[in-house]
């Protein structure tokens, strides 16, 4: 390779174009971070020139380019930007902004000087003048806005081309809108340049400003030669930084290492990778304490699904390279393309694949540790009915453990172990069930049997207790659907009940309107005293035993249902007769059907209802 220190004027002189390869990421520098810092550096150099101080060079870092072979006499010299597209593009925006500012101020002496570093001359001798006229040519997603902003002859042209981005008074909108980066950058640099020029003497200041950019800013320009490995250099410069995502490195690795004699990189990008540049894949997803773009989680989960091996998200790029050894670029992209379709339905809980319903059912449980196993099942060569049955088993495993108050802390290791063993054997439902049930004596991994599950249904504190609101609502919603299937109801399908409140039929604050079975009443203070007495192992009176029995029954599943928010607010802590009338008038849920037939509600009624719901749950979540 050849390495030289160049001024920005040397970088942009002559007929050449710095082209961002199609597989690189879009322009990402912003007004909030990089532009003001660069402008401050430029101003410092310009002000030194105005003060007759010889500025020291200001280095912007290294730029790595790979010259492309020119075919024929027409056209311009093309250099692919391996590293440095953000700086080169921004410098073009700076120069374009200065040109617009000088035109606005009617200072035209430097127009041709700026044109020499913004436009390639003699378009009639170019193969594709509409593209080759630019000194820098961005990647696909930036091209339209880049051309529109860079070809604006004056600030009014930008306003006319982007009317929605300006107020009626003609000022640049700052709130409630996302500007195309090219427009945003050029407009801001133009405003800054105009203000600085006016504050520093007008025409006299323009030369200092232009010279500050073109001669005082310098870069180390590295030109690759035949045989140089562009990807190794790119990794060395960027692989350890925080600015690039692992997926940027992976994308570049895929397309820099493609064997163009066997595979068409542009066609592969268009058919397989371009989909991952959409905003859908940039959504931040949180798992535990880690938040990463969705695409990183896809690649991480896909490698786990394919290999059954543990991985380190912090080393995702290295992980992917190790996984990809021996695979062609097409094979790697085919893998990501396949898993990507399944992953989206899993995450969003929408779609026609069995994995979509699985994802929807488990969203409240935040069990992303199941994703590699779920993806492997979803892409397996078995029928949809077999996949649905396997997903039902995993849901049963998780719901049963949650209701029984068993910890999910070991799920990451457990589900990876299940996946690893399942991959080695036959990919059948029977094999998966055997693996899920393979640790019957381990609290960290066992799949509760019916006896334990039913007992927890009737006695364990569920809400507030073993389940949070989202999980409890999901469980009650699925029970509602199951109860409807057992009846010849007018509406057998289960609706979306996510907007309903979880209601304690016998309320948590029961002291005023809900006497104990013997007719006596109590207070919150007495309830607290009974709890304390039980905690220290004291002897409880019959009255205190009744209080404690009620306190333990209230958060159990037998006492929980779903109600419209306003109905729940109106019912509050009122007696059962009042609550029953509200149910008759306002509910159509099967969960509440037996409540409307009762004359009273107490601990015995809660126990009976819990047994009924537990029987339904053992069928809904079979072991």
UniProtKB/TrEMBL annotation:
Pfam families in the record: GmrSD_C, GmrSD_N
Start and end residues of each GmrSD restriction endonucleases N-terminal domain: 8-255
Coiled coil: none
Domain GmrSD restriction endonucleases C-terminal: 447-615
PANTHER family cross-referenced by the UniProt entry: DUF5655 DOMAIN-CONTAINING PROTEIN, SLL5132 PROTEIN
The name this protein goes by in its record: DUF262 domain-containing protein
């Amino acid at each position: 390779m050849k390495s030289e220190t160049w001024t920005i004027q040397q970088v942009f002189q002559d007929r050449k174009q710095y082209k961002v390869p199609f597989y690189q990421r879009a322009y990402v520098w912003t007004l909030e971070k990089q532009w003001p810092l660069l402008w401050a550096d430029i101003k410092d150099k310009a002000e030194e020139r105005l003060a007759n101080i010889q500025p020291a060079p200001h280095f912007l870092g290294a730029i790595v380019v790979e010259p492309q072979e020119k075919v024929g006499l027409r056209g311009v010299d093309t250099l692919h930007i391996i590293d440095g597209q953000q700086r080169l593009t921004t410098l073009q925006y700076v120069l374009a902004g200065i040109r617009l500012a000088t035109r606005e101020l009617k200072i035209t002496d430097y127009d041709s000087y700026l044109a020499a570093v913004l436009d390639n001359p003699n378009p009639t001798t170019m193969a594709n003048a509409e593209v080759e006229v630019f000194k820098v040519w961005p990647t696909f997603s930036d091209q339209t806005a880049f051309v529109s902003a860079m070809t604006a002859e004056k600030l009014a042209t930008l306003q006319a081309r982007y009317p929605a981005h300006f107020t009626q008074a003609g000022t640049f909108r700052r709130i409630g809108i996302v500007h195309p980066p090219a427009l945003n950058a050029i407009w801001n640099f133009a405003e800054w340049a105009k203000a600085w020029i006016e504050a520093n003497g007008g025409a006299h200041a323009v030369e200092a400003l232009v010279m500050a950019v073109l001669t005082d800013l310098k870069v180390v320009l590295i030109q690759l030669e035949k045989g140089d490995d562009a990807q190794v250099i790119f990794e060395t410069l960027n692989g350890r930084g925080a600015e690039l995502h692992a997926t940027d490195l992976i994308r570049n690795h895929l397309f820099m290492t493609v064997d163009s004699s066997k595979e068409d990189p542009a066609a592969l990008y268009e058919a397989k990778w371009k989909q991952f540049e959409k905003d859908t894949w940039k959504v931040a997803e949180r798992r535990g304490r880690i938040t990463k773009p969705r695409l990183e989680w896809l690649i991480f989960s896909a490698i786990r699904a394919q290999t059954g091996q543990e991985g380190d998200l912090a080393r995702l790029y290295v992980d992917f390279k190790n996984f990809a050894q021996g695979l062609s670029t097409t094979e790697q992209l085919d893998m990501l393309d396949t898993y990507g379709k399944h992953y989206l339905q899993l995450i969003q809980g929408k779609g026609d694949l069995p994995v979509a319903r699985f994802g929807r059912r488990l969203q409240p449980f935040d069990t992303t540790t199941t994703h590699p196993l779920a993806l492997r099942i979803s892409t397996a060569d078995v029928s949809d009915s077999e996949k649905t049955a396997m997903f039902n088993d995993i849901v049963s495993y998780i719901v049963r453990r949650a209701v029984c108050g068993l910890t999910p802390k070991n799920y990451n290791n457990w589900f990876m172990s299940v996946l690893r063993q399942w991959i080695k054997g036959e990919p059948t439902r029977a094999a998966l069930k055997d693996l899920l049930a393979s640790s019957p004596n381990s609290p960290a991994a066992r799949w509760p049997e019916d006896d334990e599950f039913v007992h927890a249904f009737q006695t364990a504190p569920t809400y507030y207790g073993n389940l949070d609101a989202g999980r409890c609502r999901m469980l009650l919603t699925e029970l509602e659907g199951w109860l409807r299937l057992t009846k010849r109801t007018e509406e057998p399908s289960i609706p979306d009940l996510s907007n309903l409140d979880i209601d304690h039929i016998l309320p948590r604050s029961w002291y005023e309107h809900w006497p104990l079975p013997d007719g006596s009443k109590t207070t919150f203070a007495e309830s607290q005293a009974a709890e304390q007495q039980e905690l220290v192992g004291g002897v409880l009176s019959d009255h205190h035993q009744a209080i404690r029995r009620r306190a333990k029954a209230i958060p159990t599943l037998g006492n929980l249902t779903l109600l419209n928010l306003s109905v729940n607010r109106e019912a509050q802590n009122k007696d059962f007769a009042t609550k029953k009338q509200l149910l008759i008038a306002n509910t159509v849920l099967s969960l509440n059907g037996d409540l409307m037939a009762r004359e009273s509600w107490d601990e015995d009624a809660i126990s009976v209802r819990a047994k009924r719901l537990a029987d339904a749950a053992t069928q809904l979540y079979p072991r």
